[in-house]
Design brief:
The protein has a domain of 82 residues. 17% of the residues lie in helices and 25% in strands. The chain is built from 2 helices and 4 strands, in the order αββαββ.
Length: 139
């Protein structure tokens, strides 16, 4: 009879391929809600029309951001102008840098912004025809 110390035991060789369990089957209960995900959005090409309202909104946002230096713009009203014209009338709230604080030249850790309201008129070509400071709600 062989003693335990004399016999050699070998372990099974190590398998390199990982063991992957199949995914569990979906529950087959009639009360489970059906979840449908919407299809991914299709990219809009440059040649595709984006609509007159969306184009007018984009033109107003672009003007307020570039000309007034607005950090944030919220269009509050956007309507077609008059019956005879094909332009647009818009109102917006914007956050712009406080010019008084900027003029002082103080070293600040955060930029000081003011909320202001503007009214704009756009022509049929979506060019800003006029704009005016409409004041803010807290004044």
């Amino acid at each position: 009879m062989m003693q335990k110390s004399q016999r050699s035991e070998r372990a099974a060789p190590h398998r390199q391929a990982p063991i992957v369990a199949p995914p569990p089957p979906p529950p087959e209960s009639a009360s489970a809600p059906i979840v449908r995900t919407p299809p991914p959005p299709t990219p809009v090409s440059a040649s595709a029309p984006i609509g007159r309202l969306s184009a007018a909104r984009a033109a107003a946002l672009r003007f307020l951001s570039s000309e007034l230096g607005a950090r944030e713009v919220r269009i509050t009203k956007l309507i077609p102008a008059g019956h005879g014209s094909e332009g647009w009338s818009a109102e917006a709230e914007v956050l712009v840098p406080n010019l008084e604080v900027k003029m002082l030249g103080l070293p600040l850790t955060q930029e000081i912004l003011e909320r202001e309201c503007y009214a704009l008129e756009l022509d049929a070509d979506l060019t800003v025809r006029s704009y005016e400071h409409a004041g803010s709600d807290d004044q």
